[in-house]
Amino acid sequence: MSDTPEVKAIQDAINNLESSLLKKQNDRLEEIKAGLKVPDQDPKIKQLEADHAQLKADLQGLQAKANRLDFTGAAGERKSAGEQFLEGVELKNRARQFNMSVELKALTNTTIGVVPDAQRLPFQETPTEPHIRDLLPGGETSNSTLKFPQRKIASDVNGAAMVAEGGLKPESSFAFEMVTTEVKKIAHWMKISDELLEDQPALRSYIDAQLIDGLRDVEDAQILKGDGTGQNLLGLYTVASAYNRAVAGDTLLDTLLRAKTQLRLVNRTATGIVLNPEDWETIQLLKGSDSHYIWANIPDANGQRVWALPVRDSTKLSEGEWLVGDFRRGAQLFDRRQAAITMANQNEDDFKRNLVLILAEERLGLVIYDRLAFIKNAPA
């Protein structure tokens, strides 16, 4: 941030003002020493001090704006993937044949359960679909494998009890086993024309709408249903415990509340729900005995929520499948390499045809600390 032209200009102006202010103060001091009569307040010094204070405030504002990452800033100030990429490369000064790569800052909402506002961009709108990663705490790793303690389901024994003074204390056995998981890569590429490359607003929104959201779609599928083999993550739905509190006549709303309770009965606390869009529609269409829509009378400023829990509707689950979980404590998503964008036209054919290849890729690992933290419904 300190090297940008705007900041450098303000810093130079501050230095010049400070020099002028110091000189004016020294001149005033010499006049006082010489016995000259000077006014109590010098208007020029007062103006210099006011200008100095304003420039310092401007500099602090720019620095604060630069430190806002993605969804944590105010609306209109966050940087999308496309904006970060275009700020990281100089397209105008590129060679006729080139290869450019920029690693992006985190593209996730740091407030779990809050759906980010949509941002309208030229050419295409950035997709507003919330993703499963939003429910999970994030982390970073520099390794290709992650070794972590996973809670063993069948072995936990809570032996805590009231004990008489001098009595023998009981033992609790909370068993863990060390589990190793590998960091996996998600990637895809597309080709664009030189004309789109020259249109920076369109290129920015193209990166956001096509490349980055394409990575997130695969993330969603892997976080939920990855089978853990080959280049697949081991997904939360894959390892979740089966729902076992079904009651005849229950609506889907009833069922989700019972699933939330099922987690509490094993001392876990639900923090989110994932279900198919058609099941989410079923909830929204529920009516009372007087035919009014129940959901329409439950306004919530925090986005889609059921029983005070954030909801993600995802096509990665089939109709009738849903997942209720303690996403905050039961699992964590680690970025080995956050989303990176690479552009190149070094392929001879692309160079002749004025085409540019854009590659988006990331490396990440999913750690599941506690399989009992997730409940699923898997229709027969």
TrEMBL record:
Coiled-coil stretches: 7-65
Segments forming domain Phage capsid-like C-terminal: 131-376
Keyword Coiled coil: yes
Main location class: virion
Location in or out of the cell: Virion
Keyword Coiled coil appears in the UniProt entry: yes
Keyword annotations from UniProtKB, A to Z: Coiled coil
InterPro entries: Phage_capsid, Phage_capsid-like_C
Annotated protein name in UniProt: HK97 family phage major capsid protein
Species: Deinococcus enclensis
Lineage of source species: Bacteria, Thermotogati, Deinococcota, Deinococci, Deinococcales
